[in-house]
Amino acid sequence: MGGAMGPALRLDDVELSVGQFMHLGDAARARTLDDEVRADEPTVITTDARAHSADAVVSARAVNLKRARGFYASRIKPAVDRMVAPVIGLVVLPLCVGIALVVRVTMGRGVFFKQLRVGKDGQPFEVVKFRTMHQDRRSRQIEIDIADRRRTHKHPNDPRHTRVGRFLRQTSLDELPQLLNVMRGEMSLIGPRPELVELVDKYPDWQHARHAVRPGMTGLWQISARGEKSMQECVDIDLDYVEQVSLWLDLRAAIATPVAALGKRRGA
Predict the structure, then answer these.
(1) How confident is the model over 252-258, as a mean pLDDT?
(2) Distance between CA atoms of 41 and 257, rounded to whole angstroms?
């Protein structure tokens, strides 16, 4: 990548429209790598991998965990999740019942899909979604590039998904049952996406800093990338969230999520 990197992007210092905010991931990848970190603030020294064409630029990065361990992230944010998630659950309950019936009729038994994911501080938990794949999905496997899962694992023409399932993923409606995970304290409404255990086992040390906060139903990379970016780029966006987590940032992500989900973006 030619030229010097631009100044660090700090959401507290700028005003962004919803449209601009949805491209935050692209701006975040242009941030500087030499942020000054106060000696008394908790940090994790990581390696920041960014993919450019066929090559990857790997350089040092200091992940500031002050906000991730601050009063908002540790106290206020969980309280907001516990209060807001049940309200959202009641509002979308009729929709969830309708989706469950459609899944049952079109895909047969097994309305929900459960899978082990990695949460805050590396603790595993079982994430809940509406099922989107055929019963015989194991015989319809596509080749998954572990090093670039964010791009290949969310292929828009994945043969394992039914037509209904593809629609649910494209609109993120398959993730509505994750409100149960939020109510149980395993997830947050906003945060990094929970990743598969087998993929986290392959993480280099620098990627584990994204587990400093609870994973979210939606977050920065979902609304800025929607499956179009590599895993390395998405983890980098997640680290930006870890550093900048705040009520204002969560509100921005919540507002932008419906726009991203209903927009013409690939993935789910």
Answers:
(1) 91
(2) 31
Q: In this predicted model, what pLDDT tens digit does every residue of 204-246 receive, in sequence order?
A: 887 888 999 999 999 998 787 555 667 777 888 899 999 999 9
**Measured torsion, CA atoms of residues 92, 183, 169, 196, in degrees rounded to the nearest 10:** -170
Return d(Cα 174, Cα 206) in angstroms, integer: 30
Q: The whole model's pTM is what?
A: 0.72
pLDDT above 90 as % of the chain: 43
pLDDT of 141: 55
β-strand pairing of 124-130 with 112-118? antiparallel
**58: number of Cβ within 10 Å:** 13
β-pair partners for 117: 125, 196
Q: What count of Cα atoms within 13 Å lies in the side-chain half-sphere of residue 45?
A: 5
CB of 212 closer than 8 Å to CB of 119: no
The 10 Å CB-count burial string (b at 16+, else e) for 85-121 is: beeebeeeeeebeebbeebeeebeeebebeeebbbbe
